[in-house]
TrEMBL record:
Descriptive protein name: HDOD domain-containing protein
A Pfam entry, by short name: HDOD
PROSITE patterns for this protein: HDOD (PS51833)
Ranges of residues in domain HDOD: 34-221
Xref: SUPFAM superfamilies: HD-domain/PDEase-like
Organism: Abyssibacter profundi
Source lineage: Bacteria, Pseudomonadati, Pseudomonadota, Gammaproteobacteria, Chromatiales
Protein origin, superkingdom: Bacteria
Gene3D superfamilies (UniProt xref): Hypothetical protein af1432 (1.10.3210.10)
UniProt cross-references to PANTHER family, sorted A to Z: HDOD DOMAIN-CONTAINING PROTEIN, PTHR33525
Length: 285
């Protein structure tokens, strides 16, 4: 294979982008090459999956890890979740967030630590992708209701937070010295391959069936039928425009998802509905 660290013509660059992305998928989409969850995550999962766990058990696990404790404290004191008083202890933070939200925050922080960008041109995109996930999670939790077929607020937050896990390894995998051409073009190419990888990562990190199905479908516009992933597609586009994540904005995907929502939910303008009902949460995020 010819060296990739020299300047390439546009056709060659396009070929390289596709080749790098496909090779990354093949290399990374195995349980052996994807990093396993850290011990604090596995311990937290074990506690939550037990039948008789208490919040005190969760507090013990979170307090044993400095990064996890800091993450949970910060999450409990955000404008979106903070009450009248500031949380000053891990115990109070876990109580405010609840078991599932605590788990989600710890796992999300652990993923960010596990997948660090190697290519400087992709660092900004990965940072925006993390921010986008948090925005989508916040929006979906706020608008969750029977009317849109997503009643459980905790589940809505979880699938929003991890909907794009397939993008994470691809944005962190490109070697630093490789000429990837345009970072935004690489992002678009990676998005076409992110669904399968997202499914693998969702299983490896024990993210649950709802996240697995969402990760498999929400970045794949051609998926037939309707499910929570359709809502995630729409929320993703609303939030991408809001935070200025231009590479993630896809008018064609938004149009198709909006039409699907009209048929499945009998809602004429779900985008406006989401923006109206989620405005307060997004402003606080």
């Amino acid at each position: 294979m010819r060296p990739l660290n020299r300047r390439l013509s546009d056709p060659t660059a396009a070929f390289v982008i596709e080749t790098i992305t496909q090779e990354s998928v093949i290399r990374l989409a195995t349980q052996q090459s994807l990093p396993a969850p850290p011990q604090v995550v596995m311990r937290l999962l074990k506690v939550i999956q037990s039948e008789d766990f208490s919040l005190a058990d969760i507090v013990d696990v979170v307090e044993s890890d400095v990064s996890a404790a800091a993450t949970v404290m910060a999450a409990a004191n955000t404008a979106a979740t903070r009450g009248v008083n500031e949380v000053t202890s891990v115990r109070d933070a876990v109580t405010r967030l609840g078991a599932q939200a605590t788990r989600d925050r710890v796992m999300h922080q652990a993923m960010q630590a596990a997948f660090q960008p190697r290519h400087p041109a992709l660092a900004g995109l990965l940072s925006k992708e993390w921010a986008l996930a948090a925005q989508v999670a916040t929006l979906l939790r706020q608008v969750s209701c029977a009317e849109i077929g997503l009643e459980d607020a905790d589940t809505a937050f979880t699938i929003g937070l991890f909907h794009n896990v397939g993008m994470v390894p691809l944005l962190s995998a490109a070697p630093a010295l490789v000429n990837i051409g345009s970072a935004s073009d690489y992002y678009v190419a990676a998005r076409h391959h992110a669904s399968a990888l997202g499914g693998v990562l969702a299983k490896r990190w024990h993210l649950g069936t709802a996240v697995y199905e969402t990760a498999l479908n929400c970045l794949r516009p051609a998926t037939a039928g309707w499910g929570a992933w359709g809502l995630v597609r729409i929320a993703r586009q609303v939030c991408a425009q809001r935070i200025g994540h231009g590479a993630a904005v896809d008018e064609q995907t938004l149009s198709a998802a909006t039409l699907a929502a009209q048929e499945a939910l009998q809602m004429t303008d779900i985008v406006a509905w989401m923006q109206e009902h989620g405005a307060e949460a997004l402003s606080a995020a």
